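Before surveying the methods themselves, we first show a specimen of the format, giving the amino acid sequence and backbone structure tokens:

:::
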Amino acid sequence: MIQALNPRSSSRRVRDVPRAALDSEAILAAYRRWAGIYDTSFGLVSLFARRRAVALVNRLPGERILEVGVGTGLALPRYAPEKRVTGIDLSAAMLAHARRRVAARGLKTIEALIEMDAEAMAFPDHSFDTAVAMFVASVVPHPRRLLAEMRRVVRPGGHILFINHFAAESGPRWWLEWALAPASRALGWHPDFAMDALLAPEEKVRALTRAAPPAGLFTLVQLPR
């Protein structure tokens, strides 16, 4: 007999694995819907966390930067002048906004904006000094594959950064995230996304994590390569 899931007794298992799978088709459909209003909706919520991530990138050594999931290019004007940034995104609609932003602002730090699958990048090994993924880990179908690709394209001694929302471990916020999880395909991201879905236990030990605004809703994760 199939038993109904009890969220209280099974909370650990639910947190480990997002409940509603996302695939490339669902992601592209969601971001076609979001592209025109992204900057004035989620862009405002994520503003300060995004600034914090780019500020850390600017402090790190090396000039070759990969921004994974560049979206509409909200972060692009904030990179230091000495950085050389390549951005990739699966969504052509989002990239069109990013290209217009680069042209309008005359951004010289941006070397390329490329339509590319973050889980199967076309770059050679060790192409970048730093790879940063902002609000991407809870969007891709296979987060650990994303991390493996970022590790592959970053040189030894470089850095891998994530800024993302991760599900709460318990309490009212966790219940809300769990309740919203079935809407993942419509939202284009996983409200119930746990850090364990991205990082293996040995990686969690090595990772530096910092809460990011607003009110610690997002987390900045730094992994040495």
Observations:
- The radius of gyration is 17 Å.
- Residues 1-20, 179-189 have pLDDT under 50 and may be disordered.
